[in-house]
Amino acid sequence: MASVFTKIINGELPGRFVWKDGQAVAFLTINPVTPGHVLVVPRKEVDHWEQMDTATYTHLADVSQRVGRAVKEAFGADRIGTMIAGLEVPHVHIHVFPLASMDDFDLGNAQKDPDPAALDDAAERIRAALRGTGYGEYVADA
């Protein structure tokens, strides 16, 4: 059975995409720990990150770094955190988010019902930052 992320990637469920390429996508999580919290996900469904081939993992790291720079710019963050937890959805994903303290790494602190307009705004801010840094060809349409 396809994971929820595969359904988002395939357009069966909605997603606020900020990045799309042939191997990976990035979209806002519906439960952010901080505004601008993005998930970088391979198109290929793999449950455990250590089981991915090195080329795919390297690509995800590269996309995470590019998206992280855009998130940092869009939100004026001092630091950007990344995390692979792998407990929520059985499909590899890298969390990329602005952080102010170690508490921001606690996914238990994620917003349960964030304002959809705030998520839309965050997505557009990240898209604009990606375009401004030369990655326009990968920026997903709203």
Description:
Helix 2 packs across helix 3. The chain is built from three helices and five strands. The chain has helices spanning 4-9, 54-75, 116-132, and strands spanning 17-20, 24-28, 38-42, 79-83, 94-99. Strand 1 (17-20) and strand 2 form a beta hairpin. The mean pLDDT is 94. The chain has 142 residues and is an alpha+beta fold. The longest helix has 22 residues, at 54-75. Helices cover 32% and strands 18% of the residues. A five-stranded antiparallel beta sheet has the order 1-2-3-5-4. It has a single domain (4-136), classed as HIT-like (HIT family, subunit A, 2-Layer Sandwich). It comes from Gordonia sesuvii. This is HIT family protein. Its EC number is 2.1.1.-.
